[in-house]
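Interim report, section 4.2 (structural modelling).
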Amino acid sequence: MKNTGTLIVTTPSDREIVLTRVFDAPRQLVFDAFTKPELLKRWFGPRGFSLVVCEVDLRVGGSWRFVLRGPDGKDMGMRGVYREIAPPDRSVHTESFDDFPGESIVTTVLVEERGRTTLTATVLYPSQEVRDAVIDSGMEHGAAETYDKLAEMLLAATT
Amino acid sequence: MQPAGYGTSPDRLDATFTALADPTRRAILARLASGEASVTELAEPFAMSQPAISKHLKVLERAGLISIGQDAQRRPRRLEGRPLAEATEWLEGYRQFWEGSFQRLDALLNEMKTPRKKRPRRRTTR
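Predicted structure of the assembly:
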């Protein structure tokens, strides 16, 4: 619904989180940026974090392993297995964190229109318990939202 | 992918997200974001009976997302901000986690699109 650069986060069900974001690039480039370690290392992770380990075995059944190092020097490891790979528009992989129980399933869909690509990543948590553990994980506090933004999010989720 | 965590009770968040997991209920909340409304007014835009709408309203009420206003006749429903603000704040942390990454990805994609040519200067460092 919005232009390039606006990340929309919605919760279509109590076990899912959906991220939607438009990138001003063809989907093949976006797909590459999500699957090639030399590219992933240049962008993946929040500000202040660096991707110190990035291994990708891009085939069905192949595994991936990332380690993010935080500004405090603490490492956060994550891993998973590719279940579906259909370049340049779709992939499905599992994802789990070294420090948290449970495994989520991430479905990534890329749709290109006039040279721009809409990414939709759906994260399906195995249970509410796991989501609670994630909620309790204690990362940095985000800024409070205004009602305007909230209404926009709800409308986005409705349409 | 790792979202943010807060002091908010997980049970409360669960109730909120469960209530939000239905498109009709989200539409009702979106409507109430612009002001209180009676059950009849809320039912209007939906092809749904009043009892069906009332059922949704009960779920929202139980989750603390809406309350019933003073007017004993109209019994208007209104949006309760707090649980929604907590849920949104949690989502906002999640959003920020990814937004930092995606801004760097924008710059990278820009560079990938113009491989050998002079790179545009307009993207200054933050």
